[in-house]
Specification:
Helix content: under 10%
Largest sheet: 10 strands, antiparallel
Structural class: mainly beta
Radius of gyration: 18 Å
Distance between the termini: 15 Å
Strand content: 35-45%
Low-confidence stretches: 1-12
Number of strands: 20
Number of helices: 1
């Protein structure tokens, strides 16, 4: 695939560059370096800063990471002590920094992944501390997705643990990774988890599978990001992208497109 606006000719028409909107049922799109606002600076004084205005400053307290594209669900935080931060270090600029164990964001509307329904979730992250479990997203102590360690992702559905462990390698705390969770086959509820990093765990273009396929077709509600639930096993590190397709199970080809798009920003 060629660059933006310059596609290969197929049947006389140029192909379009792939984006997350190319995959059907895109429900949540929190995009790297887009639609992020801060209403307090590092000293908690009121400001009006945003990525759109280009005036975000180091340590700004982020009150919103708003929906991108045609999606409408925002991530918000109004409590000063719980707000993630803006970071200007070159490796991390454009992301959202959850710098200690009390930072998280609420979704403006719950994403309810119905029982017996396919879905795909993708998160681009750098965990800077994996000395304990770190939540990626969820809604309660019985429904969440979290890194249980530097080798294992736990999906908890209807209070049942589904653990996906790397056969080899680890999730390093100085590197960005993208995790893709896919549920397929409707009421069968086949769950698979794939990970890819820029430096490690990058052996295949479609991701390294974590553990083996497990099954759970139960409903999952997502109301928070950066934690398993409000103040629960909060994430420490950075998020750069959060995406959910409610109703679509990404194929291996789709996973390659997702990984390539997110890493190529």
């Amino acid at each position: 695939m060629l660059g933006l606006g310059i596609g290969m000719m197929t049947g006389g028409a140029p192909s379009e560059a792939w984006t997350p909107a190319s995959l059907s049922n895109l429900t949540l799109w929190l995009k790297f370096n887009q639609n992020i606002t801060a209403d307090q600076d590092s000293s908690s004084s009121s400001v009006t800063h945003s990525t759109a205005a280009g005036n975000m400053a180091d340590g700004d307290k982020i009150n919103a990471w708003n929906a991108f594209g045609s999606t409408s669900i925002n991530a918000v935080q109004t409590t000063t002590g719980d707000k993630p931060l803006w970071e200007t270090d070159a490796a991390d600029i454009g992301g959202v920094k959850f710098h200690n164990q009390i930072k998280f964001m609420d979704l403006s509307a719950n994403v309810v992944l119905d029982a017996n329904t396919d879905f795909t979730i993708a998160v681009r992250f750098k965990a800077t501390d994996l000395s304990a479990a770190r939540g990626l997203m969820g809604s309660s102590g019985s429904e969440f997705l979290r890194l249980n360690s530097n080798t294992t992702l736990r999906a908890k559905v209807n209070n049942t643990n589904r653990d996906f462990a790397l056969a080899s390698g680890t999730i390093a705390t100085d590197e960005y990774f993208t995790i893709i969770i896919v549920r397929s086959d409707g009421s069968t509820g086949n769950l698979n988890v794939f990970i890819r990093g820029n430096e490690s765990l990058n052996g295949t273009t479609t991701g390294t599978q974590m553990g083996s396929q497990l099954t759970d077709a139960g409903e999952i509600t997502i109301s928070d990001i950066g934690a398993s639930f409000d103040e629960g096993t909060n994430f420490i590190g950075f998020f750069k992208d959060v995406l959910i397709w409610d109703g679509t199970a990404a194929s291996s080809g789709d996973r390659k497109e997702i990984f390539d798009y997110i890493e190529g920003q």
